[in-house]
């Protein structure tokens, strides 16, 4: 007893029987074909002996496959009948049957793209194999067609712009969304050079992304780019590009284009509002700083002015017999107050020019050691009076690019401060070296130092580290001016300090 089912029954068990239309004008051959096909498990329609009968049966029965004899009765032969079936909308595969193998007949049959060609007489196995191959091929073609139709539906109806572009940059296919985005008719878009649609400033960035895609280092790339509309307007987009069929003879680039013009406009508006807010804050800060400066200037000037007026009044009220002994003392106080006022006015003028960007510097190559030694020598009497030692270690060949007058002014301010705020028996050490393409000058003292709060205010006008009401002379503008002068010479000035542990001023300049 055989428990194994036949191959034919196994093949057809899971699906309805395949319907085959026989078109054959020889009744004996047609009957033999019908019996063979039914024995194989197929459902047979016909036979039809003419093109007219074949068209009628195909329209009524919708067969899955047609076995078409080439020589049939009527005005149309089998090849013409197959073409008529195709034009009538019949998508069923056709296998031609013929006893002729001449090149003319074969060429005529091949022209209709049949799914098979059998020469009579043929064996049942040969017939069955040809039918199954034709059915499988037809199924794959239908699946491919369905896939292409789904792709076409997704491509054409996508809410974002889509385009297929060749590696040479030609737009092979595009959808209506992209055409509308670019202000073009769809036929005018297809076949155009994709590069001509791109903003020139974005071409290089796009090319670099596409190179990464084509050399296999990335499967897809995303970037922002600007397209040029037909009316000349610019459209900001977010683009995603994938390489289709990379191993095919003609790979293509799939562009997916999302319009982000509204987002870009919103970003630009937010940036403009932020810039306006910052500008307003800056103006308010400047106005506040100017108000504070005027307040502090008036306050700082009041003390020497009061001294001038006070001693002048005392001099006027002093009895004549005592004027000789008092006038010299009073006049000395008046002169000191006047010099203090003059120094303050000069410093304020320098500060104002720096604030307006009108501070002039004449840059040249300056021997640093010579400049430092001059500043120290001029302040040596003050150092001796304060019992402060001045030490210098600056390489003789070290040069900087600076305005020599302004550089001496900075050094004098820094050395004077180091002496004034030092302690009896203290030291000031001036050193210099080249560090990372800059010349760094350090002025380190071991004086009274500053707290962190005082250090944060040291570059503010009239800030004197809490010594504003002491007998230590100064306007409180020297460090502010020194920093502005350093910046005008492409340099920097910073301060580091510790209360009771001294102060280090660091001046960095461009090498000469």
Account of the protein in words:
This protein is α/β, with parallel strands linked by helices and 512 residues long. It is 49% helix and 21% strand. 24% of the residues are buried. The strands form three sheets. Strands 11, 12, 13, 14, 15, 16 and 17 form a seven-stranded mixed sheet that branches. The chain has a five-stranded parallel sheet with strand order 2-1-3-4-5, with helices on both faces. A five-stranded antiparallel sheet has the order 7-6-10-9-8, with helices on both faces. The N terminus is likely disordered.
Which helices and strands occur, and which strands form pairs?
Layout: H1 7-12, E1 19-23, H2 27-39, E2 43-48, H3 51-61, E3 65-69, H4 78-87, E4 94-98, H5 103-110, E5 116-119, H6 124-157, E6 161-166, E7 171-174, H7 176-182, H8 186-189, H9 203-214, E8 220-228, E9 234-244, E10 252-259, H10 261-317, H11 320-355, E11 364-367, H12 368-378, H13 380-386, E12 389-393, E13 399-402, H14 404-420, E14 427-435, E15 438-445, H15 452-456, H16 478-488, E16 492-497, E17 503-511
């Amino acid at each position: 007893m055989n428990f194994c089912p036949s191959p034919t029954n196994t093949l057809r068990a899971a699906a309805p029987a395949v319907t085959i239309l026989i078109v054959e004008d020889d009744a004996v051959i047609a009957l033999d074909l019908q019996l063979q096909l039914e024995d194989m498990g197929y459902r047979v329609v016909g036979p039809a002996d003419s093109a007219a009968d074949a068209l009628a049966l195909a329209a009524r029965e919708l067969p899955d496959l047609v076995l078409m004899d080439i020589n049939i009765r009527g005005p149309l032969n089998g090849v013409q009948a197959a073409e008529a079936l195709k034009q009538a909308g019949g998508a069923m595969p056709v296998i031609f049957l013929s006893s002729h193998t001449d090149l003319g007949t074969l060429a005529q049959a091949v022209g209709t793209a049949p799914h098979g060609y059998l020469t009579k007489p043929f064996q049942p196995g040969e017939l069955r194999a040809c039918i199954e191959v034709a059915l499988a091929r037809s199924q794959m073609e239908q699946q491919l067609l369905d896939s292409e139709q789904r792709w076409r539906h997704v491509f054409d109806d996508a809410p974002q712009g889509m385009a297929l572009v060749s590696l040479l940059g030609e737009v092979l296919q595009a959808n209506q969304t992209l055409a509308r985005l670019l202000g073009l008719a769809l036929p005018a878009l297809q076949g155009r050079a994709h590069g001509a649609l791109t903003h020139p400033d974005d071409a290089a960035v796009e090319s670099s992304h596409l190179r990464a895609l084509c050399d296999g280092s990335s499967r897809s790339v995303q970037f922002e780019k600007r397209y040029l509309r037909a009316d000349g307007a610019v459209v900001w987009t977010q683009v995603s590009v994938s390489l289709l069929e990379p191993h095919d003879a003609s790979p293509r680039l799939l562009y997916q284009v999302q319009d982000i013009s509204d987002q870009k406009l919103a970003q630009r508006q937010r940036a403009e509002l932020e810039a306006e807010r910052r500008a307003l804050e800056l103006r308010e800060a400047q106005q506040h700083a100017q108000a504070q400066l005027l307040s502090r200037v008036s306050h700082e000037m009041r003390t020497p002015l009061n001294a001038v007026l006070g001693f002048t009044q005392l001099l006027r009220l002093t009895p004549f017999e005592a004027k000789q002994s008092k006038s010299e003392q009073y006049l000395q106080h008046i002169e000191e107050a006047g010099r203090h006022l003059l120094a303050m006015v000069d410093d304020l003028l320098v500060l104002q020019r720096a604030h307006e960007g009108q501070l002039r510097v004449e840059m040249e190559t300056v021997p640093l050691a010579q400049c430092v030694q001059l500043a120290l020598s001029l302040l040596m009497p003050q150092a001796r009076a304060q019992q402060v030692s001045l030490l210098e270690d600056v390489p003789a060949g070290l040069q900087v690019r600076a305005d020599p007058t302004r550089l001496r002014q900075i050094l004098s301010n820094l050395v004077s401060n180091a002496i004034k705020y030092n302690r009896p028996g203290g030291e000031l050490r001036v050193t210099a070296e080249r560090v990372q393409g800059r010349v760094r000058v350090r002025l380190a003292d071991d004086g009274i130092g500053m707290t962190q709060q005082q250090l944060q205010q040291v570059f503010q006008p009239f800030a004197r580290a809490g010594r504003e009401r002491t007998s230590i002379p100064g306007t409180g503008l020297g460090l502010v001016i020194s920093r502005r002068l350093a910046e005008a010479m492409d340099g920097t000035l910073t301060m580091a300090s510790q209360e009771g542990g001294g102060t280090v001023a660091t001046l960095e300049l461009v090498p000469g």
